[in-house]
Write a structure and sequence with these properties.
Layout: E1 14-15, E2 28-29, E3 33-37, E4 42-53, E5 56-66, E6 71-81, E7 87-96, E8 102-110, E9 116-125, E10 128-137, E11 153-163, E12 168-172, E13 175-178, E14 181-185, E15 190-192, E16 201-202, E17 206-210, E18 214-218, E19 221-226, E20 229-238, E21 244-252, E22 256-268, E23 282-295, E24 300-309, H1 314-317, E25 325-335, E26 339-350, E27 362-374, E28 381-392, E29 398-413, E30 419-434, H2 441-444, E31 448-462, E32 465-469, E33 472-485, E34 523-536, E35 539-550, E36 571-579, E37 583-591, E38 598-608, E39 613-621, E40 635-645, E41 650-659, E42 675-686, E43 690-699, E44 709-718
Antiparallel strand pairs: 1-2, 3-4, 4-5, 5-6, 6-7, 7-8, 8-9, 9-10, 10-11, 11-12, 11-13, 12-15, 13-14, 16-19, 17-18, 17-44, 18-20, 19-20, 20-21, 21-22, 22-23, 23-24, 24-25, 25-26, 26-27, 27-28, 28-29, 29-30, 30-31, 31-33, 32-33, 33-34, 34-35, 35-36, 36-37, 37-38, 38-39, 39-40, 40-41, 41-42, ...
Length: 723
């Protein structure tokens, strides 16, 4: 945004007279009075002088134009507005009649983004503006009632230079004033003027301290390489360990966008169950990630994401991420009106203590194709699916799978208002597995080729009843479902994607309650339950409960603890309560069918608004699952979080996670029944132009060189500064 010392003129009122014999130079304006001195060739306009040209507007008490010296001078309450919205105020403005160069005294420039530049004097030469004895602030200088107030922060400088070509504002002799007090000198400071969405420069540094790395300072440098791509280079300096370099690259193309980010250092690496030796050898350590999406045509798109780290503790050691499994994927998709095709590949990197590198799966390819076809005979709809999957492990079991399925559904409304859905399903599978002895027996299947056929029919009936309820409405919907499926071969089939089976309200009425495709729930069963919905002014309640009964008496493959191992299943349900925007409550449960013991108890609640709120989460899984089933560990934990705004701009915030699991719930747990995992607490000041925050976090877990201890983080963010 150029600093407006120009004064474009345009005709919309009167025209100044011109000497005889010369081509008239039109300077059009509106004013209370107009005088023209033919001898001196000077035009003088007084009283509410206004000029306009190409969106530029000038207002002043007096404007004098010397046509011989080409000088234009405006005095008294001068105000210049540009087409982009910048407003310049001054007591006296002198310009050449080219309207490009000049001098303004006692300048106040209001930028389009609300920022202000003030100076005793400002000059413009060849488009570059120089301000002497200047100050800049993006903060409001009046309160909500329009009364003057001191800005939260401002920069005072001996000289300020605005370069409209580079779109930057540079300072000389600059000092940062915070809450009216000088804080620090800022030699070489510059930042974007806001007209091009930012430019290259140093971003706001980040300061933190923790027990292992010591004091850390990160100083990002932003590189605006082009309007559609940029980079950020961030050196991380530590007092206790070697420096680390971080780099990020972002690129927007005509088809999509992608981002790459990486970290690199040269430091000692320690195993997850080891103590760091005093003379540990230093090695290269790093992490790289990237993601992107490209829309090739209206139907075809490509999505990619990748993550890799050199060792298991690097991400936690440098507080980059707490993920314990990294996933990389490439997915080519075609989405049509009635069809979907996905060709994907997956790779995983396990960071948990129990993960074996050679047994992490690589999925390539994973092909899934689906078509939706209307039934021209019975009025239903067919859903056709073809799927193929290859799972490779360098030191483990390899599995290949292919299947094709067809599902027919017809939904109808009976004369009594019941919603009836009829379903028929058929699927044929082909599997191949090798090196099955490297997988535990529960999941391995049989070596070699195996095939199976799956069939099922189902009828699902809902009968809603609607009525008034305390000034609102209520809807009670009983539901019953019958599913019949012949005996299906499951034991000989390798299980890659259906291991973590558990009865929940979300899968109670599913045709197959196993996740994935490798296991199928056969037999004849009935599922029954009810939904209740209440809508009152400002209040919404939703609750459901249900159970299933298996008619078949033969042994099931569903293990104890899943809620489905008996002929009668456990009871499952969910209740959600929403009161305006201030209260949200969700409770999920599973009750033992015999003792009514609570096997799953999960609560999530949020109360408050945007400024002050509290969140609470509680989870207890008491399923008595066999410890050999690795994907269904019992545990108990509680989570708290919240923020309290105690003044207009001040707030405190915090969160905590506590492991309540004991040996009675999980024999493999190391917790004693009350084991904090981590907590944090912080203080924040946040107004319209500055953010100041300090956070204290404590971690209670040690994994290799990612050790338990305290971390302190200081954050300062100033509007428009840091680039």
């Amino acid at each position: 945004m150029p600093l407006l010392l120009s004064l474009p003129c345009a005709a919309f009122g009167q025209e100044a007279p011109a000497p005889a014999g010369e081509t008239p130079a039109q300077v059009s304006f509106s004013a209370d009075q107009l005088a023209y001195d033919q001898n001196a060739d000077i035009v003088t306009a007084t009283g509410e002088v206004r000029m306009n040209r190409d969106g530029y507007n000038l207002r002043a008490d007096t404007v004098t134009w010397n046509r011989i010296t080409s000088q234009v001078e405006a005095q008294g309450s001068v105000r210049v507005v540009s087409p982009t919205g910048e407003v310049a105020y001054g007591d006296r403005v002198q310009l050449q009649d080219t309207l490009r160069d000049g001098v303004i005294e006692n300048l106040l420039l209001v930028l389009a983004d609300g920022g202000r530049l003030a100076a005793v004097e400002a000059r413009r030469d060849n488009g570059v503006t120089t301000l002497n004895q200047a100050a800049y602030t993006p903060c409001a200088v009046v309160d909500s009632e329009g009364c003057p107030k001191a800005p939260t922060w401002q920069i005072n400088a001996v000289r300020v230079v605005h370069d409209p070509v580079r779109h930057r504002i540079s300072y000389r002799g600059a000092t940062l004033n915070l809450f009216g007090q000088p804080i620090i000198g800022l030699p070489g400071l510059s930042h974007p003027d806001g007209s091009q969405g930012g430019g290259s420069g140093v971003l706001v540094p980040e300061l933190r301290f923790d027990r292992i790395n010591g004091l850390e300072i990160a100083v990002p440098y932003y590189l605006r390489l082009a309007p559609n791509y940029d980079a950020t280079i961030t050196p991380h300096l530590y007092t206790e360990v070697a420096p680390m370099l971080e780099a990020e690259y972002r690129h927007l193309t005509a088809r999509g966008a992608f981002r790459l980010r990486g970290y690199a250092t040269y430091s000692a690496r320690v195993g997850v169950n080891e103590d760091p030796p005093p003379d540990a050898n230093r090695v290269f350590r790093g992490y790289i990630e990237g993601n992107g999406r490209w829309q090739l045509t209206p139907e075809w798109s490509v999505t990619a994401a990748g993550r890799y780290v050199t060792d298991r503790t690097f991400l936690r050691r440098y507080d980059i991420s707490r993920d314990d499994r990294l996933r990389s994927v490439v997915d080519v998709e075609r989405i049509g009106t009635n069809s979907y095709i996905s060709i994907a590949g997956w790779a995983f990197q396990g960071l948990r203590v129990t993960d074996v590198d050679g047994q992490q799966p690589i999925v390539l390819p994973a092909i899934d194709a689906r078509w939706r076809i209307d039934d021209p005979w019975l009025g239903g709809r067919f859903n056709i699916q073809a799927n193929s999957l290859a799972v490779l492990r360098p030191e483990g079991q390899d599995t290949q799978r292919a299947f094709a399925s067809a599902q027919w559904d017809r939904r109808m409304i009976t004369p009594l208002g019941q919603e009836l859905t009829l379903t028929a399903f058929a699927r044929g599978d082909l599997y191949h597995a090798t090196d099955t002895l490297l997988t535990q027996p529960l999941y391995r299947g049989t070596e070699g080729w195996n095939a199976r056929f799956i069939g099922a029919v189902a009828a699902d009936l809902k009968w809603p009843f609607v009525g008034e309820f305390f000034g609102g409405t209520q809807r009670f919907t009983p539901r019953v479902q019958f599913v019949a499926s012949p005996a299906t071969d499951n034991i000989d089939i390798p299980n890659e994607d259906a291991r973590a089976i558990e009865l929940e309200d979300s899968n109670l009425f599913a045709l197959n309650r196993f996740p994935g495709y490798d296991r199928w729930e056969d037999g004849v069963r009935m599922t029954y339950g009810a939904d209740w919905a209440v809508d009152l002014p400002g209040v919404q309640v939703r609750t459901n409960i249900g159970q299933s009964y298996r008619f078949s008496t033969r042994e099931t493959i569903l293990p104890p603890g899943t809620g489905l191992s008996g002929r009668f299943s456990d009871f499952v349900g969910r209740t959600t309560v929403q009161v305006g925007r201030r209260l949200s409550f969700t409770h999920r449960f599973r009750l033992d069918k015999d003792s009514f013991a609570i096997r799953r108890n999960e609560i999530d609640a949020t109360i408050g608004g945007r400024q002050t709120y509290a969140t609470m989460g509680y989870l207890r899984l008491n399923r008595n699952v066999d410890p050999a089933i690795e994907d269904l560990r019992d545990r108990e934990e509680v989570r708290f979080g919240g923020r309290v705004q105690f003044a207009r701009y001040w707030s405190i915030f915090g969160s905590a996670v506590i492991d309540l699991t004991d040996r009675n719930e999980d024999p493999l747990s190391q917790s004693d029944g009350f084991d904090p995992i981590r907590h944090r607490i912080g203080l924040l000041y946040d107004d319209e132009c500055i953010e100041l925050g300090v956070t204290w976090r404590r971690d209670y877990e040690t994994t290799g060189d990612a050790r338990r201890g305290n971390t302190f983080l200081i954050r300062v963010a100033l509007k428009n500064l840091g680039r």
